[in-house]
Amino acid sequence: GNTVIFIFVLVLKILARCHDRMIRNKKYHLIRTFLKVIVFKRSFYGKSSNIMRAVRIHSLGGPSVLQIDYNLPIPKPAKNEILVKVKAAGVNPVDTYMRQGINGYNPSVPIILGKEASGEVQCVGAEVKEFKKGDRVICALSHGAYSEFITCDKDSVIPLPDRFNFSQGAALYISYFTAYRALVTKCKIKKGELVLVHGASGSVGTAGVQIAKAHGLTVIGTAGTAEGLEIVKKNGADYVIDHREENHLQKILQEIGQKGFDVILENRACLNLNDDMKFLREKGRIGVKIIKINKNI
């Protein structure tokens, strides 16, 4: 009950402090896919069945602004929405940007953070025919996942296969849809091509390696630590290289006897895009992960 929510907030604050510290040290790490999930267990506060709890912020700032609100109304789904009982909520770097009001984010407060969740359908709106009560689902939201109940547009909900638990499901949507959109929808990857996943030990990079291998590409994955390199290798990359090394792209191409990449999935374009352009083959493509575009750019 209350203990579970308290632990949830405590872990969120620990993760947030770690992320803030990495930013101050100018390091870049993603909380890896299956370590970034906190599990919710619903337990009502009081007797009312119309009340829920959530982790909400009332001001922008550090981890200390994450607070439990105990008496929030359970949202009611609109005609095209689904009410979901949250079982697990994904924790993404963008949540910390919103909390701090950085990288182009300046949300109005109070606000419940969280962009992805998994859970069970409680009820559906009048126009929803694809889902029913009890279905296991994955949801994408603009915000709001750190709560016991959420409403989601039916077009932002997909079934959660039985082979995945709720924690795994809550870590799938943002990372895997981002990587799929970059590689398949935009770059239109083809079997036999050579792809570089720049930053392959993070969540989007992990998804990118798996998607590229599933489509029959030769995959080069980079990471910045020994642990990260091992993760990339175990994830299926054909070659791994430390992106902290000087001229690492040139070195790996020479090692494998290639002149350039057909496709690059770039997770940190602000540092790497210039070098990426130098090592593209003719008609090569780059998929760039963008957190948010500043309106002044």
From TrEMBL:
<dbReference type="Pfam" id="PF08240">
    <property type="entry name" value="ADH_N"/>
</dbReference>
<feature type="signal peptide">
    <location>
        <begin position="1"/>
        <end position="18"/>
    </location>
</feature>
<dbReference type="InterPro" id="IPR013154">
    <property type="entry name" value="ADH-like_N"/>
</dbReference>
<dbReference type="GO" id="GO:0003730">
    <property type="term" value="F:mRNA 3'-UTR binding"/>
</dbReference>
<dbReference type="GO" id="GO:0003960">
    <property type="term" value="F:quinone reductase (NADPH) activity"/>
</dbReference>
<dbReference type="GO" id="GO:0070402">
    <property type="term" value="F:NADPH binding"/>
</dbReference>
<protein>
    <recommendedName>
        <fullName>Enoyl reductase (ER) domain-containing protein</fullName>
    </recommendedName>
</protein>
<dbReference type="Pfam" id="PF00107">
    <property type="entry name" value="ADH_zinc_N"/>
</dbReference>
<feature type="domain" description="Enoyl reductase (ER)">
    <location>
        <begin position="61"/>
        <end position="297"/>
    </location>
</feature>
<dbReference type="InterPro" id="IPR036291">
    <property type="entry name" value="NAD(P)-bd_dom_sf"/>
</dbReference>
<dbReference type="InterPro" id="IPR051603">
    <property type="entry name" value="Zinc-ADH_QOR/CCCR"/>
</dbReference>
<keyword id="KW-0732">Signal</keyword>
<keyword id="KW-0521">NADP</keyword>
<dbReference type="InterPro" id="IPR011032">
    <property type="entry name" value="GroES-like_sf"/>
</dbReference>
<dbReference type="InterPro" id="IPR013149">
    <property type="entry name" value="ADH-like_C"/>
</dbReference>
<dbReference type="GO" id="GO:0005829">
    <property type="term" value="C:cytosol"/>
</dbReference>
<dbReference type="InterPro" id="IPR020843">
    <property type="entry name" value="ER"/>
</dbReference>
